[in-house]
Each structure stands twice: as structure tokens, then as C-alpha cells.
Specification:
The structure is a homotetramer. By secondary structure, chain A is α/β, with parallel strands linked by helices. Chain A contains ten helices and 17 strands. In chain A, the strands form three sheets. A nine-stranded mixed β-sheet of chain A has the order 16-15-14-13-7-12-11-8-17. Chain A has a six-stranded parallel β-sheet with strand order 3-2-1-4-5-6, sandwiched between helices.
Amino acid sequence: MKDLRVGLIGCGFMGRTHSNAHRRLNNFFKLGHRSVLKAICDTNAAKASAFAETWGYERVETDWRKLMEAGDIDLVDICVPNFAHKEIAIAAAKAGKMVICEKPLALNVAEAREMVDAVEAAGVPNLVMFNYRRVPAITLARQLIDKGRIGRPFHFRAVFLQDWTISADVPQGGDALWRLDVKAAGSGVTGDLLAHNIDCALYLNGPITRVVARTETFVKERVHQLTGKVEPVGIDDACIFIAEFANGSLGVFESTRYARGHKALKTFEINGADGSLAFNLEEMEYLDYFQYAGSDSDTRGWRRIHVTNSEHPYMDKYWVPGLVIGYEHSFLNTLADFVAGIESGSPAQPNFRTALQTQKVCEAVLQSAKTGQWTETGVEL
Amino acid sequence: MKDLRVGLIGCGFMGRTHSNAHRRLNNFFKLGHRSVLKAICDTNAAKASAFAETWGYERVETDWRKLMEAGDIDLVDICVPNFAHKEIAIAAAKAGKMVICEKPLALNVAEAREMVDAVEAAGVPNLVMFNYRRVPAITLARQLIDKGRIGRPFHFRAVFLQDWTISADVPQGGDALWRLDVKAAGSGVTGDLLAHNIDCALYLNGPITRVVARTETFVKERVHQLTGKVEPVGIDDACIFIAEFANGSLGVFESTRYARGHKALKTFEINGADGSLAFNLEEMEYLDYFQYAGSDSDTRGWRRIHVTNSEHPYMDKYWVPGLVIGYEHSFLNTLADFVAGIESGSPAQPNFRTALQTQKVCEAVLQSAKTGQWTETGVEL
Amino acid sequence: MKDLRVGLIGCGFMGRTHSNAHRRLNNFFKLGHRSVLKAICDTNAAKASAFAETWGYERVETDWRKLMEAGDIDLVDICVPNFAHKEIAIAAAKAGKMVICEKPLALNVAEAREMVDAVEAAGVPNLVMFNYRRVPAITLARQLIDKGRIGRPFHFRAVFLQDWTISADVPQGGDALWRLDVKAAGSGVTGDLLAHNIDCALYLNGPITRVVARTETFVKERVHQLTGKVEPVGIDDACIFIAEFANGSLGVFESTRYARGHKALKTFEINGADGSLAFNLEEMEYLDYFQYAGSDSDTRGWRRIHVTNSEHPYMDKYWVPGLVIGYEHSFLNTLADFVAGIESGSPAQPNFRTALQTQKVCEAVLQSAKTGQWTETGVEL
Amino acid sequence: MKDLRVGLIGCGFMGRTHSNAHRRLNNFFKLGHRSVLKAICDTNAAKASAFAETWGYERVETDWRKLMEAGDIDLVDICVPNFAHKEIAIAAAKAGKMVICEKPLALNVAEAREMVDAVEAAGVPNLVMFNYRRVPAITLARQLIDKGRIGRPFHFRAVFLQDWTISADVPQGGDALWRLDVKAAGSGVTGDLLAHNIDCALYLNGPITRVVARTETFVKERVHQLTGKVEPVGIDDACIFIAEFANGSLGVFESTRYARGHKALKTFEINGADGSLAFNLEEMEYLDYFQYAGSDSDTRGWRRIHVTNSEHPYMDKYWVPGLVIGYEHSFLNTLADFVAGIESGSPAQPNFRTALQTQKVCEAVLQSAKTGQWTETGVEL
């Protein structure tokens, strides 16, 4: 059993989800490595100390560069706001560290390319935390597609709906609200939420080649927490786009933080000639499946698969059939696959290069929203 | 095309549902008979006249005995409160008329036996309007059971939940509220609601042999509309019973008019070794089916069959796949089968004899509720 | 009580739904007019005769022009394929008949304008049968919006998904399949299905000003039933569009006949600052409502309103709470409102002029799909 | 920060759920104690060692008596089969250790009384792990009831349905299957599953005073894993009972391991004059609530509360609104409350005395199933 010595940067929400995954890894997965929480880093020292206490990190840093120089760190786990991903990831790669980076990979395609180049030049294992691929129901969807259960695909549709920024009184920027600050986040729902849906789409239905998009910013000005002043809002509050997939199917995507009544309604549905699949994150224990080919006409129906059997992806690691796991386990499953990938030499996906494709789609979407034109994504086919 | 000349008695809610079935019969079903609305009868002449105008009856009667003597009536359709079923049905049989009778057949088993004897002695076609058997989803359930899709049955459970009598201000007795008057209705939820569930149970899972029951009357006194006085309430507001079926499976039934939030939650679920089926009247377009035998372990799930395909029972008579029919069509389907049964010589069920079995179970349930003891139903096996 | 003497043209699926509405009108609605089925017209004489027998029409015509000349016809009800709407409607208007026309109003905006001009010049009552406005749940949605329950609207999304043309063996054209023949139908899912969604959107959320659209024809050639030859398919099998509403909200619409597992999944959801509403035709007895304003934070949730109470639109006309009506009743409710509108002088909507707005949106959608550009709809604001 | 030094006995499924709770306690809850995994005990040394490695226990024991003598154990956590609860718990109490015991408390009421006496005599903190009380949705149900939201209760109904023992080839007894061995388990579904439902019922609706029950053993003989022989099955495969609550409401409970299609369908529904509440463990993120009092008649409906807001019980400890937690967190929440109870001096429930009431109901149920008679539970009122 080898130690996998982790240095994690960023004590926000994602810092917690990643720390939890590291802490629980060896309770549930049989691996050749043990996750060891060596160092936590945050510019806010008090926050970092409290975080270290809560999660059991051995030491605290306030300058992430220290982690790069440290001899006792094998893996750098990047949980800071998007604007800082590039610099840290490239430094980590140059220091020969493995890198896990929160999504989206970067602020834009240009940054993302540099990051891909850096990890590939350094030859270090790398992963972007598009955690939803490892929700068991979504992994099962992919397995069923691979088995040919849906046949020729015609349609893919996905939404990611929230409602937490409807009030004009919500400020932008700063600690918990950097996602509303375009400088820190790069974009609004496109990079934050649609990036997840695009990653799932690529995973389940292959490359997206062209898009036409419309974005909207419903609240035009908000107080900025860092300046204390009312400032223009630079992010997209909502984004809708139509997509062409390389396989000839059509896609439609929508995300917003103004859909009253939805907190994390991340869905997809894929329709093929032989069957269809649908998912909803708010009840993530289910995968809905309509089997056409090979079914009797009088008993066809959407079936709700309660994805908690030991045959289902990852579920043999947890409890017994019928008992659900939650959101956080998607991070744990991803981390386990990352470590298994290091051990097997068959890297887990999405690595930086794969996540670059999602970045390209996001950028084309934002570009199309500006020009009003259909826009090529330029993804690798 | 022969005329089937109808004399219908009772202008209440059931008078409307039966009249609607007669009026629409030949718009949807190809039969050798045409339903002709000859006479409507109600003791309230004004009500009967208005009803005749609305539904197109040719004439009005206020004494049901006139229908027995009439030469132009082939079928007597009984839609009056329960207490009057027996006398009318027996008279109709003696007059050689076909008889359709609203459920429950009678106030009690003794009455029901007399009625069975009368129609059998007269040799007239007879039917009790347990309409729910012909909700397409329920008929489909029976077809699937007949095909062996659920295998050895272990469990049957059913509820019929309403909430319209919670207020102590609801009076009992009289026109629309005779169901709360024990003299008119014979019992409360047992005869009104559980009779439906029991009929479905017999239809889907065979005879019930023994029961133990508990009834409750939550509101002990109500104003009686006929007397204007506060009188004790004689009906059961709620009834729960455990049942043994002849096939070795266990049943549990519950009905109440005190289940806040439910207006007509009539359900059943049957669990067998090879599959399960479930239904809910409030969304009657669905049958839920869990296929175990012959299914793959990773894609098993409850499937919602949207029972609107042309392959589904009765649905080829109506619109196109995906478009739902409603409550009233269960009466229409039943009437069509009754007429087809006359024509084919293979009578539609449940006839009076079959409905007598349901009456026996109801009586055993009420008896058990009084004694607290397990009680034999005495049904035919 | 006056007679409303009906001449109906077209014995297909819509001929049945309209005939059923006429037949049942006076059983359920108290009106000053009685619907009288005077004449049925179809170019196929045998089909028309059988139809007359089934539905009780007094006479049969094979040339619709006869109805225009007839002195005993008050209302012309047009149930023929789209291509023939214009000529018949204009002739009827000129003959001073009231006109009910199946949707979509016409093949295109130019035709629709002519029809509007004709009925307005003649001053005859006119209606386009966008029946779904009178599904009780949808009417209730409108009532709640009118009461201010959703507040400032941000999003409207709607789909209409079917799966009946996936097989390349389905032919186009002819009796039941004219919807696949571009000459008869004008377009594919846009005019057939999205027209319904657009009408609902206008009803609930006001005018659509700009759109960008993408259509697809998945099966490029099909046997034509009239010629017996394989011919190119001219219709859109699928259509997706993004919309801007005049009120500042964003819309997204999708329709296809290639969504395996959906037979008539017509939905909408509208999100406002103070609440949201959602509907699904496959379970049309429900309206889903999320109340934000005025609700407690710990018990907020999407509520499923079982739209079967007597307080709910139209439901006092039918049975008792909890018992559902079906698809066909939306036609009946619409017809009742049309007749009531004649009597009150306050015409029911959507009349031809209102339906012209939907036609404009459809045309802009099809235009945008060709050019790839955002396209103005030119609707009246 | 004090250490809470844990000695846990039993390396089965429950050993895992409790260990996980201890491991994660201080990651999510701010408490004055830190859970320290001192010793794991199992008669199977190899199993215990592997378990210690996985979960991080400091040492391994194979005789639970060692824990009683150990000076470094503050809390004994009992995760062994039911038959061994009593001896261990009493020894722990006598040794002055705090005790957490898996449910059901004991094989029968007599044992349970001895255990209550022991912990009360010793004055040690004690808890029975009826974990479902701390599913956030169930805790929220209790809060709403306490606020008077459902008013006078009329009905309580609950099921716990599984399907894992339908095959006659499943053996009984031994490691993972001791729940099928009456000597190890005391009873079948009554003690295993209904005990959970009864505990929830007592928590939400108060004492149960009388019951009438029916049990069934569908498979009469199974191979016993310890003897290798076919032996009679002594447990109840299924159990249904009707209950009277002290508050005048009626209850009905059903549990079985023969309900094909259900893996852990643990539900309850409670109906009161002013509202109703319903829950289903298979989608435990929801609480369904029907508000009657204070709601508008046209928008009443069952609302699905997605119990993931920070206002909801325990949810401020985890992620952000919309993101679900799972089964295991109910153990964690319970442990946190137990520790908080030690610190505050206000003990968490259900302690042994409270769990004794559930044991009494179970015993009355099993007794009634034998005699066929209504049976008093003798619970404290």
C-alpha cells in the first residue's frame, strides 16, 4: 500500500467535496494507494486552519507555491475559483505533481490549451473533476448505450436549472459568490452548469460540432462584495443553445439560475431508435429507461431503475440494494477511478485533453450568443 | 341493428354516468344493438324532466313500477340508492327485463341472494356496474396475470382514500348525501368504496376466504337532511381489513373518507414471484409493472405503461396513442361488453352471482369489525 | 333553445373529435343553443356514410360546396387536412356561416391573412381549434398567471414529443398519413405539434418576437401512398427553436416524432420570480405549481394539483372531485366556450386573428431553420 | 475537545454503517467530542483485522468481554445479531460504558426490560440505532406535526417491502443471513423491518395500544448455513397488522420480503384534519406534504418538498441546496445527536426505555398473529 500524499488548494465548497472524497477513499475502495491529507492551502490562514482541523490535514499553507516545492506532495488538488486554475495547474505539472482540477478546466480555450500542453509535456496524471460522470445512474446510462440499447441516436436534451440568484439583492464576487463575478468565473451558467451538461453529452453522445446560443443577464447590476460598489454584472444568468452532434443527432441545452422551484435540476434525456434514457440529479438514485427493441408492445413503458443494486456501477462498494448514496459519492467514485487509473496505466477520464473539448463547446456557445450566428466548436472528432 | 330500449331509474351521479354510457355506446363500439333512451324515472318529477332534457330520454316516469309494465323497455338500469336495489331488480327480472344494477348489489347478503335467485329464475341478462374492471389499465393487469407474468402471488394491497367528510358540518342523508345514511346505504366506506376494491381483488387474485377488520366512525353525530335533526351516524367512516386469499396470498385493504389530500385514491398492487403490478385511479392512464422473470438485472425497474396504445384494452375504440380517456369511459366499456355478451351468449362479468361474492366479503368485514374476530367469508371457491 | 346546425367536413381523426364534442355539448353544458348534426361531408362517400351512421349526422355530402349553399347549416366545421382550410373557410365566411377550423389555421401566413380578412369582412363567428387551451389544467395555469402568482416571468419551455415515424417503412401521404406529406400539411412537426405549443405560449406568456430554429428530417425518403413511389420527404421531422418573448423572458421549444418512448408528451413550464407552473399532456389531470411568494421556506415544494375539483375550470360540468376527464373533453370545453361566446357577444379565443399570430411564429421558425439566422416573427404586440 | 473512545462489536453490514458514522462525525458536526476508533471486535479474527484496516481501528479483539475491561473505551457500539444484544449491553452498562445498540433492542420484551434496567441502574448514556428518525425528511415531518400542521390525526399507514428472499434457494443462518434464522434474529420482518416502522410511528403519532396481526412464512424450509441441513423456517416472511393509536387514529402496517420490485420501500403516510405527510425511503430526499388548513382550494395539491435546503434538519451540515445525501447520513445524524445529548445533558432518543415500547408492540404483533386475537401492547401512555 503506497501513500498518495495530497496537497489541496481552496477551502470552499469544492474543497470540502474533494476532501471528503480523499478521507473516505480507502473505507470503500480496495486500491494500492492510501490517500494521505498532507497539506491544505488557502490564502485565508484562519479558514485554512479550521479546515485542516475539520478534515484532518497535517499542515496548513497560505501560498500554493509552497506545495509545488514540497517533497511530500504527490498530488495537487485544485479547488480554487476558475481564474486561478491555469497558473496552479501548470506549476504543478512542471513540479511533476499529479493534478486534479475542479471544472471548468479554465477561463477559456486558450488557457485550457496551455494547461493540456503542460500536463502532457510533464507526463503527469491529470483529471478534471466532472464528477457527474460517476453518478451510478449516469455511468449505467453509458454502459447501456455502449451495449447498443438505444440504437441510432436522434435527440439529446439537457437542462441545469437553479433559482438562487433571482433576488437582485444577492451580491456578486468574494468568498462564496465568486461564481457571479465574471473575472473570477469567466462566465455564468455556461461554465458553471452547462459545462457539466456538455461533459455528460460528450460522454454519452459524442462530439458537438456546431451551436447556436442565446444568453441573458436578467439582473444587470449587483453590489460587488470586494469593492462594496454596485457594478455591472458580467456573467450570463441564463443560457440556451441548440447543438449538432457529430453523430447526426440534435441537442438542446438550457441552464439558468432563474428557474423558480429548481435547486439543482440537472437532467438529460437521450432518444434513440431502439430506446431512450433519462436522468434527473434531484433524484439521482434513478435512471429512467424506455426499452423499445426487444420489448412487447403491450407492456412498454418508461422504467424507473433504482440504481442501487450491486450489479450497478460502484454500488457494490456501498450498502445493500435499495439504499441510496448521495451527491458526494460521485466525487469519491471519480477519485477512486483516478487512482485505479494511475495503478493500471489506463487513465481515468475526463483528463485535461478531454475537458478541453468541453471548454471549446462552452466558448463556441458564448461566442454564438454574442454574434447570433451558428458557430463551429472545433472539437476533435 | 336492433334497439336496446332503456328505462333508467335514478337521476343522481350514477344516473348521469350510466346515461352518458348509453348515449355514447354506438359512437365508439360496433355492436348489433343501438342503445335507445326510452324512459327516465325519478320520484322527483322536476328533476326527472330536466334530466330527460339534458340526456335525451323520450319520456319521464316517477314510479319505477311503470317501467316494469311497459312494453317498450328491454333493459332496466338501476341507479338509485342501495336500499332500493332489491325490490326494483326483482321486479324487473320478474317482468323479463334485462337488469343493470349499480354497485353494491344490495344492502346485505340476504338481499343479494334473493336478487341472484330472481334473475337466474327469470333467465334475464344481468350485470352489476363494477365499472373499474374496465378501466383499460385494470383490464390489462388481468391480461398480464392471465399470461402468467406475475407468477405465484404473495401479496395484494389496495386502498380507496377520500377526504370529503372530514368536516363535522357535512350532513347525512337526503339527495346527494344518502351515502352517509346507513339506512339508505347499508354501510359506509365498506359498501361504497371497498366493494370496488374487493371486486377488483376477486377479478385479479381470486376468492377471499377469511378476514379480520376494524372500522371507525370518526364523527359520531351529524344533522340528518331528511329530519333536520342531529342523529347518530350509523356508517363506517373508515375500514381496514386483512384478508386471506384462496390462492395463499395475503391481502390488506383500507378505505376512508378522512385521508386529507386524497379525493379518489383507489389503488391496488399485486406482488408475485415473477412480477408485480400497481394501479392508481387518480392517474388511471398508467399501469405500473415490474417484470422480474425474463428481465436483465441491471435494467429492472417499475415501468409506467401509458395505457393508451391501440393494443391496450378498449383503446382502439377511442383516439390515438398517448391521448387519455377518463373515468366515464369505464362505464361505457362495461356497457359495451354487456351488450356484446348478450349478442354472443357469453355474459359479461360481474353478473349478480359474481357480485354476490363481493357482498359476502363486505358482510364478513363488517361482521369482523363488530366481533373483533377473524371471520369466514363463505365465498364460492 | 335555438338549434346550431352543423355541417362538418372531414371524416378523419379530427372529424371524430369534433363530432364527439357536438354530440355531447348539451349533456354537459347549459347553453342557449343545441348542437344539431345536419350534414357530414367527405370526398369518400362510403366513409362519410359510415361516419354519419356512427355519429348520427342527418345527411351526407361529398362536395363541401353544397354546405355553403345549404340553408340549414349555421356552422361549418373544418376538419380536413391543412391544405384545404383556406378555400373552405373563405367560402364559408362568404356564405355567412360561422366557421370552426382545425389548427393550424393555414399552410402559411399569406393564406392565414386571407382567411382572417374573409371572416372579419363577413362578420361571422370564427374559431381555430387549439383545443389544449381548454384542458382544465392549462386554463387553471392561465388563471393563476392572471392572479399574479408567478410574478415576473423569466423562462418558458415546452416540448411536444412523439415517436411514431421512426421506422423508415412508414409511408407518407394519403388518408391517415397526410401529416407526413408536405403538400397536404405545409410542414411537419412545426405546424402539427409546435403550433399547439406556440398557441399555449401566447396564451400564457404573450407574444414571441424573435426566434432562431433548427429543423431536421431524419428519414429523407418515404413511399408516397398516393403515387406508390419513393419520394423525398418534405416535412420537418424535428424542430427546435429558441425564442424571445415580448415580456423579456426566454423560450425554448422542441418537437419531434423521433423521441422513443413518448407518444404525446406535450409539456410546458413557466418560471417566474414568484412561482412556476408545469404541465404534461400525458397526465393531463395534473398541474404542477411551485409557490414561492407567500410560502414558508421549509415546506416549499412542487405541488401536484389534481385538477378535478369543482372549483377548477370546467370540472363542475363533469363528475365529482378526483375523477378524471380525458383528451376529448378539451374539444368539448372549447366548443362550449365558442357557443357561449356567440351568445354573450364576447367571442371565444383563439379566433382566426389570434391564430394568425401562431402562424407567424411557425413561419418565422421555418424561415430561421432555412437561413440559420435569428428571425423576427412580426406578431402584433 | 474530548476523545470519545469507541469499541465496536460486529463487522457486518451494521458494523460498517456505524463505523462510517464515527469516521465522519467531526468532518460535518461541530461537537465537543472527537470520535476515536479504538477497538473493533469480532469472533472472526481475520474479518476483524481486515475491517480494522479498512476503517482505521487501532486494535482488534475477538472477545467482546475485553472491551468491558478496557480502560480506553468510553462507548460500546453493539452491531452484532439480535440474540447477543442483551448480554453485551448489560455487561457494558455494568462496566460503566455508554452503549449504542443496533435495533431491535432485543429478542423480546423480557430481555429488553433487563437491558433498560441495566443502563438505568448504571446511569450510562444509551441509544438504540433507529436511524430513520434522523433522515431529514422524517425529522422534518415531526417538526411539521409539532407545529400543528396536520391537526387531528385520523390515519397512519406504513409499509416496509423487500423482495430478496423469494427464492427458496436462499439459505438461512450464518454470516450474512442470520436475519432468516429465528434463533439469531428472534423474528423475521417484524423485528427487522416493522420495528423501524413502529419506531417512526411512535415518533410521529404516539403510542400504539392494541393490534391485530397476521404473519406468513411463504417458504417453509430452507438450508441452514451453519448445519448444512434443510431446516424449518422459524421467522415471519411477511407481517400485516392493524393498530389503534392512543390518540384515536387508526394504523395499518405491512412488511414482507416477498414484494417483487421493492428493495427497501419503507414508507409512511399520516393523514390529519388539517394536512397530510408521506415519505418513501427509496427516494428519501423528498417529503410529500398536503396542506389543507390555510391553503387555497384551487391550488391545493401534494407538494414534493426536496429536503435539501439549509433550513431543513441536518442539511446545513452538508452541501448546498438541491444536492442529496444518502442512507448512511441517517446514522451520522443520529450519532451526532447522541454526542450532543451527552454534552447537553438532554439525551437523544430513542434510548433503551423508548425502544422498549417498540419492542412491546412487536411482541404484541407476534402474539396476535399466533392467537388471531386483538392484543394489548401495554406501552406506556
